[in-house]
Amino acid sequence: MLPAVSRHVRAGRAINPIPGALRWLRRAVLVLGLLGAGAAVHAQPISDSGDAVADEALPEATSKAAESMRALVHTAALQRRRGDYVAALATAREGLARAQQLGDVRMQVEFLYLTGRIQWSLTDYPRAIESHLLELRLAKTLNDPKLLARTHAALGLTYHRFGQIAAGLEHFNEALKLAQEAGDQAQVAMVLNNLGNHYLEQKDYARAKELHTQALRIRESLGLTRAIADSYTNLGLVADATGDTAGALQQLDRALEVYQRFGMKRYIANTHRRLTAVLRRAGDLVGAQAHLEEALGLAASLGSAEVLANIYEEGALLDEAKGDFRGALGFQRKLAEATETMRGERDRQRIAELRAQFDADQRELEIRLLRRDQDVQTAELRRGRSQTLALGAGLILGVVIFGAVIVVQRVRLHAERRMRAATQQAREHAENAERLKTRFLQIASHDLKTPLNALTATAGLLGRAPANEETVRRLAQGIQADTARMATLVRDFLDAAAIEDGNLEMHLDELDLAALSREAVAGLQPIAALKRQTLTFAAPKGLPKVRADADRLRQVFDNLVGNALKFTPPEGAIDVVLGELDNYVFAEVRDTGPGLQPADFGRLFAPYSRLSARPTGKEASMGLGLFITHELLALQGGRLEVESQPGQGAVFRFLLPVQSAAPA
């Protein structure tokens, strides 16, 4: 007998205690930061299928700064549990920055762990791996088996979800060994849970059930209610895979009750989706539809492409089972859109890996060719030596003449090879110059035509109304704007050509990045005012100096902030924020424009390429700004990073090494 549908539908209306707790923690952060209260912050332990207790290894803090960071750890963890990933990521990064300023390695490990798990929830697996690898490097300096076990478990989860199964299993086994060494039963249960999921995916159901049962017993003995729900879920999945429908529904219902008690929207949505699948396979399509609607309603507010993709896939299967093929097709289309969003970052990572492999193969090929040439030359020398020795016994003069001929021939061949190489190099330079000239003329004829026409028209108006002072003043302002625009175009053309030829000169000096960027933002405020946009600037005190070219760095700011103003609609906001990370000073330009499409990332820094977004105020866009900015930063030992999703604006971040640090 299947459980009643009304029971499953009613389960979606549990009271969510998280917002109240989150408000309490925010007040704690404020009080601790301003008044230095000494009371410690206490909260329910937090864990999931890949999480240990978020503050389990935290030392007893005595200073108000340490207590404030402790509260930030709890805040970010609670925000992640309730599905507010954007706010959680911002909180974790704020805490990481504070911990780095204080030199607190243990707190850096805590915030890096949270950052990686939040990025995992957002399906940004490459950045999650990067965060956890940095966490692992710092955790090793603390020599704490509990921290190392948690880090290896998180890496195992992320590699496993990223499709690198062997790497994931290796980290899981290392995490289990460290957790047992530390005597941490909560960690042991967590890793057993992860290993059980691994064997479930490998369809070794007996091994999976054994591991999940072990994890459940440990968690029940420790009273970890939240973690017990994960074991219920996984045992339900094993039961469903083995055809035990009643057992699957029972375990998933028990898990759903706990997730609703804690207000964990991501897990509630996934559990409703799993209940939909179980009921669909059991033939209860009405009950399945009710759970699907609950899942869709919750997932819409999460912003997780992975959760949505799984729900859309199940929706297509349910509509197909009901005979509603139009609805199934609609879900398939939504699934394709969500999958494309997830694949964007994976594709960029794969392209980088393929490019690195290609470069390695090219170097290996060049080495093999060089060795082959050397072998040929060696063989020729040996053959010539043998012939010379054979003839030398009776014909000394002939040997001399023959040797002279060989030498002359080799000199001639060597000269011919050098001539051919020089000719080929000259031809390539000429072809590159011809292509550059063609591109220059095409863009110049298009983008210089408009201001030149405007200047011609303005001159005509001045000729017809020379006595009207107000008209002359207004037209003169137009001439200045047009000539400034043409000057910018010409400067970009010349910079692009110099970069491609390798002739761009840099004049590096010690600079105050905060002062330079503040001046740049102030200079662009009039442009923002014309489009009724808000342009803000924020920088912490005491930022270290950087070594850079002042004029070129000002050009970088003008390009990045100018792009943000250009592509952000009227009434939008652009924020310029400075900070310090490790041995780098960074500047972020955040906008509220249309964001970047996945296809844009492949040509983001290519010269003369235009992206999907269009200027919102009819401004010109040649496709050179980001190319020049990327190259200017590289020449100064810096780098340029981009974060963006369609419809959610963009963040352009550049980093420069501090004066005392060597470029990475």
TrEMBL record:
* Keywords associated with the record: Coiled coil, Kinase, Membrane, Phosphoprotein, TPR repeat, Transferase, Transmembrane, Transmembrane helix, Two-component regulatory system
Q: Which segments does the entry list as coiled coil?
A: 412-439
Q: Which reaction does it catalyse?
A: ATP + protein L-histidine = ADP + protein N-phospho-L-histidine
Q: Where is the Histidine kinase domain?
A: 443-660
Q: Does the keyword Transmembrane apply?
A: yes
TPR repeat ranges?
149-182, 189-222, 229-262
Alphabetical list of CDD domains matching this protein: HisKA
Enzyme class, first EC level, given as a word: transferase
Transferase recorded as keyword? yes
Query: Which Pfam families does the record match to this protein?
Result: HATPase_c, HisKA, TPR_10, TPR_12
List the Gene3D superfamilies hit by this protein, alphabetically: 1.10.287.130, Histidine kinase-like ATPase, C-terminal domain, Tetratricopeptide repeat domain
Tell me the GO molecular function terms: phosphorelay sensor kinase activity
Q: Where are the transmembrane segments?
A: 389-408
EC number in record: 2.7.13.3
| Name of protein | histidine kinase
